[in-house]
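Response to reviewer comment R2.3. The reviewers asked that we include at least one raw input/output pair. We reproduce the pair for Lipopolysaccharide heptosyltransferase 1 here without editing.
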Amino acid sequence: MKRVLIVKVTSLGDIVQALPVVADIKRAYPGVQVDWAADEAFAEMVHWSTGVDRVLSAPLRRFKKARNWSDLKAIAASIAELRAYRYDYVVDIHGVYKSAIIAFLARSSRRIGYQSQDLGERGAAFAYTGRFGPRPNCDAWHGMRISASQALGYEVEGPPVYNLRLPDATTQPFSFGSEPVVAFFHATSKDDKKWPAAHWIETGLELSRRGFRIVLPWGSPGERVEAEQIAAKVPGATILPKLSVTEIAQMIDACSLIVGTDTGFVHLAHALQKRTVMIFVATTPDHCGIDSPYRSISIGDGRSVPTVNAALDAIDYVHSGPNALEESHGSAAA
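Raw output as returned:
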């Protein structure tokens, strides 16, 4: 086997959690080239993977919103790039129309996707010449590893390996002192996934008493207002400037602890091997949670709002791991 294309188009957290598929394939087939097709909006973190040989991207999401001629030309150019090589296998671990179209356009006679009942959009089935087995009884992240292994004929071994290498920071839009820093990812894409501001404040007050400095990232004006509400009640809490995706990743890597709701950046923190607590309010962690002994944990059952005490217990758990108190800056992601 010489070259494989992985298709996982969106979104940030899903792409990050799919990256261990690359390490699995390269372990099973030393020397194989692994390319990855993603939406331009999320291709940045695929470039951080040391195992991906070629990143293919197009502004699919932006074109859907704006219908710009320049974006259409960029999509056409990306199709030409997609077809520059013939693939032994195309593995679509997304399972919707746009991923299926990418798989269909790629030059390969073996295009593998989900069974119809497991597809996000059933019409995507037109693109595939073969199917994964039935969806395994496990979380979504391990399920993607299993599906890829079924497509390519190997066994999944060991914990997920992300192999992320962040770009060096040329400028620092934030500066941390010697004290341990915790980032609160309080913002969510849906209101029903939010943890109450009062809970963030109470947690921030307790962590501040423990000697942590709290920093609050944000991405929209509404999220900044929420950050201001928390910072106003937590002594020493800092509202960060608006950061790019790369800058947020670098900020995460400089922190001692990440606490946040079920969002892509909290999944990224887990992949970067940071001590991470993920809070589930309206959904359950069974399908999309994170878990690594003494390092990452998910709390919440999707039926009730996790308490502050539950969050603090989770923080104590991830901070009780080996050398936890000594870790404060710059982890390397394996």
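Residues 181-326 form a domain with the Rossmann fold fold (CATH 3.40.50.2000). The first helix runs from residue 12 to 18. Further pairs are available on request from the corresponding author.
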